[in-house]
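Practice problem: predict the structure.
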Amino acid sequence: MLLGVDVGGTFTDAVLAVDGRLVTAKAPTTPHDQSEGVMAAVAAALERAGRPAADVRAFAHGMTVATNALLEGRGARTALLATEGFTDLVELGRQARPELYRLCAARPAPLTPPQRRIPVPERAGPDGILRPLDEAGIAAVLDRLAAVEPEAVAVVLLHSYAFPEHERALGAAIADRLPGVHVSLSHDVVGTLREYERAATTEVDAALSPLLAAYLRALAGRAAGAGLPRPRIMQSSGGLASLEEAAAHAALTVLSGPAGGAAAAALVARQTGIGDLLCFDMGGTSCDVCVVDGGAVRETAAREVGGRPLALPTVDIHTVGAGGGSIAWRDPGGALRVGPRSAGADPGPACYGRGGTEPTVTDANLLLGRLDPDGELAGGVRLDRDAAERAVAGLAARLGLDPVACAEGIVRVANAEMVRALRVMTVERGVDPRGYALLAFGGAGGLHATAIADELGIGRIVVPRASGVLSALGLAVADRRTDTRRSVMLAGDALTDAAIARAVEAIAGGPPAPGVERRVALDLRYAGQSFELTVPWAGDVREAFHALHEERYGYRDPEAEVELVTIQVSEVEPGPALAPAAAGGARGPARRRAVTIDGRAVEADVWVGELAPGARLAGPAVWQGPEATLLVAPGWSGAVDEAGTVILGRD
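Answer:
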């Protein structure tokens, strides 16, 4: 059996792949210790499967421990060692303001305060060491370091991506003098130029690693006690790493949770044969958006999370605070707003009956008849329509609306947030969303799919059978992957395939192991430009760069010199093959129910449980699946394929 467990803001999802069938379970997320919710979801899945934990062959895990800690500014007591004169790199940052017209808007404070930033008497340039670091200098640095009593240390020296000797010497000395203190060396964590991004990423890695390591040790202990294998951890790049690697470098896992959804999106693309997908994963707390081109999820070499740069390969995901638990509110100008604040797992939406009183998107969907007032959500949550109506009615009174109109407004505002996120990933990058199918998943994704597709002019919607736990399924089948990035700076006559091959060999340290696929990506730019575009190493790299530059920016310059700045080498061991077939299910609706759509109540067919291959749905209809609900609006219809995936099109 293959096991995948994804921790969300509201629910923790578990998926077991057992002999070609999927067994799923949900449990409330436990923010105080996520491992409790993980083991509860696993226990529920094993009970449903009727199999012992000893039968689990592989355990993959995606979590939000590092993400939450970064967004909340929590972490270990961290010190920063930097080249003399450059200790304030992270605080100075770049000249770009976080918000163009708000001069008072500030960046997040550095994770190391000034008193824990220690200068190192050394200096390297791009061509070699300019000021050697001697034993006396190391001893003086360590004396100052010991005095601030750190729990973690980030070592960031100029040009260490090319000349790491001084960082290695400091790392060894710290391990000897301060055993038990976590050390992050920037050439290990990042390995590329641009000192600000490298310093900020290394600081994040150092601050979060002790916290993540403690969580992973607790999880590994619970898993071993239950008879489960040691978990592998999803990285931000979309591949699995060993527990030890993740614990040593927490920065690799900041987007661990959303990356599982991206891996699942690639699986759906393979299964359905639909290679171009716009994916939105709407859970209880947020909505994650990504793009699949030709069956491959887009990646990026760097991004910001919570205002902090991470110079590491990540799945290209955009997140907005629009989930089922997002709270609706009236702003000072009298407008209806939704999110980013969420009811979370505790107390959750008002309709969960756990003490929540503020109106959420889930409450609005229940009031509109899109959720079953007499049923229960996955995870055993029974819905209280009266509580939802009270919560929405309170906001409606403040807005001067009736409750049903207010509920529709809440849904429309949430949809607008998700449409905006999808436009960021498409229209703002010169991509026409109408050429893609919309892949909707997450517990709430199917409820909003047709409205979002209508807004973007998309004509096809894909909703997998396991849409409510698709991120957990993606974890179970994800590749094992290791990424290494190094700046090489090749240009002109020096930029040849032979030179690239030598650099790749040096970065990788030899040929790939049997069964491991090596993927090489190149960051290229025109001479004089400040930023690069990434192309795969295949064929004529200059022509590939010219073509991508023209696609992205509308022009190419064949006469300009092309520079290769950075090489990324990814060693990928493909994940297990999984092609579960749908095992029977409903061939027709079970009943009808009044659902409010576009201001009027309509009688909708209600389908319940698994759907049989070949079954046809026509709007208005509601499919109440095992872990998620799909609303098929009037004007949409479709069928169920052999894997149980619902594929809708406009009538």
